[in-house]
Amino acid sequence: MNLVPGVRQRGHLTKQELLTLVEWKSPRPRRFISRTAESLIAEASAAALTATSEELRIGILTLIPGVAYPMASVILHFFHQDRYPIIDFRALWSLNMESPSTYYTFEHWQKYLKACRAIADEAGVEMRTLDRALWQYSKENQVA
């Protein structure tokens, strides 16, 4: 993703960069993010990219209106120095993990994160490669 160098150098996302990510992942929350102050997006993303606590990293991003765990995981996936998978129903299905019926929790996220990191380590692949493989496996095998 061509946004990565700028965000990593600056240390935070701009509103336009977040909107670009939203268009890539799921355009539904665009209206919420469009109304959000640029300063909230910058401060929350800066805190998430520098925090040492896993719970704070993802949790602070969900304070941005329109950003839930799936979108927060996209931000961490592309911009954090540590390895993060993107959480969605396809990847969860591929790992035989249950999708939450309503909202994700930190405990659910942490279980998914640990599983993905372990698989990536065992297979010797980058997290982006694993993420794409989980998504593709579901697309080819999950019955609609």
Features of the shown structure:
single chain, 9 helices, globular
Structure, explained:
- This protein has about 140 residues and is an all-alpha fold.
- It has helices spanning about 5-10, 15-25, 30-35, 40-50, 55-60, 70-80, 90-95, 105-125, 125-140.
- α4 packs antiparallel against α5 (about 55-60) and α8 (about 105-125) crosses α9 (about 125-140).
Q: What's this model, at a glance?
A:
The chain is mainly alpha-helical and 144 residues long.
By secondary-structure content and strand pairing, the structural class works out as mainly alpha
Radius of gyration: 15 Å
Give the helices and strands as they follow along the chain. HHHHHHHHH
Please tally the helical runs, counting DSSP H or I stretches of 4 or more residues: 9
Overall number of strands: 0
What overall geometry do the principal axes of the alpha carbons give?
globular
Element layout with pairings:
Blueprint (H helix, E strand, L loop, with lengths): L3 H7 L4 H11 L4 H5 L3 H13 L3 H8 L7 H11 L9 H6 L11 H18 L3 H15 L3
